[in-house]
Write a structure and sequence with these properties.
The protein has about 325 residues and is of the alpha/beta class. It is built from eleven helices and 13 strands. The two termini are about 20 Å apart. It binds oxa(dethia)-CoA (UT7). Its EC number is 2.3.1.180.
């Protein structure tokens, strides 16, 4: 059985910075509320005409990751693309990346697991490499949230949180035994599917029906809905569980964590986990202050930044953990 490791990381965020004060011009919100409840100071939004889409941002991040991995785009055996905000209803973003990177006819797989999307995608890459079927898998998480949020006061509980961006990793067969992805742990609980969801347009909520059912437009299913406090309560429990599950599977303890990269859902969630596990500031990486919650992109963006800032060194135990819509939650334990 082979082992996989991350050989190259890259990220991309749009240039357009949107501060909390900028949002306060569009809706009844304020910097104090947003920072106090979420830790977010600003986020990036695609600007009309800047050429960014979910797929193109993914490609920008991927190009950096491929270069850093020291391979050619033609060495990629599989693309795994995670997003909840694809450019098209179908086909998925993976095939767009295959085309934009001009990679032969390599397979392209889309993952629909929202905030846990990157770890689910990483797990897919890990399994293909472990079995020996593929050698290099390009994993991308990319989101264009700003294209589909309600920026009126009605949507403020959701729209202030999310930001746009992309992150990518080249996952490669590891030559050194013990270095790389040690294990991944995935879960779901679909009974809570609608607690954080976008109902339509979909086959159940098609456009003419949406309009007919909501002539006043006051209950619009084509904006995301989030039961914030319920999601928060579940998140802190599941984050803790899945981190412990991953550590225990590898005979590790919280004191062995050199770097925890939690999905950037809310700074208060990360701080809760940090306090619960008694981790120091150096052991947890957060950048939600700058980018908001970028869903499937948040872990690869944070992981890339942590690595670029020299916060991850060879031999470190790196833990990724996520929770989000589905509900789905996941962790990955890596020896860097
Ligand atoms: O990444 C996927 C997973 N997502 C998460 O983990 C998110 C989990 N949930 C959260 O992060 C928090 O629940 C939120 C940040 C979304 C909301 O914070 P909260 O402390 O749970 O606030 P709340 O929803 O209970 O709302 C409190 C008050 C309400 O007003 P009243 O009813 O007390 O008068 C809201 O209407 O805050 C109001 N409110 C706002 N006020 C100013 C809601 N959104 C805003 C806003 N600005 N943007």
């Amino acid at each position: 059985m082979y082992q996989s490791k991350i050989a190259g990381l890259g990220s991309y965020v749009p240039e357009n910075v949107v501060t909390n004060d900028d949002l306060a011009k569009l809706m009844d919100t304020n910097d104090e509320w947003i920072q106090e409840r979420t830790g977010i100071k600003e986020r990036r939004h695609i600007k009309k005409g800047d050429g960014n889409t979910t797929a193109t941002m993914g490609v920008k991040a991927a190009k950096i990751a491929i270069e850093r991995a020291g391979i050619s785009k033609d060495d990629i055996d599989l693309i795994v693309f995670a997003t909840l905000s694809p450019d098209y209803y179908f086909p998925g973003g993976g095939v767009q990346v295959q085309d934009m990177l001009d990679i032969n006819t390599c397979p392209a797989l889309d993952v629909r697991n929202q905030c846990s999307g990157f770890i689910y995608a990483l797990s897919v890459a890990d399994q293909y490499i472990k079995t020996g079927m593929y050698q290099n898998v390009l994993v991308i998480g990319s989101e264009n949230h700003s294209g589909g949020l309600d920026f009126t006061t009605r949507g403020r509980g959701v729209s202030v949180i999310f930001g746009d961006g992309a992150g990518a990793a080249v996952v490669t067969r590891s030559d050194h035994n013990g270095q790389g992805i040690l294990s991944t742990h995935l879960h779901s609980e679909g009974k809570h599917a609608l607690e954080l969801s976008l109902k339509g347009p979909s086959t159940l909520h098609w456009v003419p029906e949406i309009i007919a059912e909501n002539p006043q437009g006051d209950d619009i299913p084509y904006y995301p809905y989030m039961n914030g406090q319920f999601v928060f309560k579940n998140a802190v429990v599941r984050f803790s569980e899945v981190i412990m599950e991953g550590l225990q599977a590898n005979g590790l303890d919280v004191k062995d964590i050199d770097m925890l990269i939690p999905h950037q859902a809310n700074l208060r969630i990360s701080q809760f986990i940090q306090q619960k596990f008694k981790l120091s500031d150096d052991q947890v990486y957060n950048n939600i202050q700058k980018y908001g919650n970028t869903t499937a992109a948040s872990i690869p963006i944070a992981l890339t930044e942590a690595w670029e800032n020299g916060k991850i060194k060879e031999g470190d135990t790196v833990v990724l953990a996520a929770f989000g819509s589905g509900f789905t939650w996941a962790s990955a334990i890596m020896k860097w």
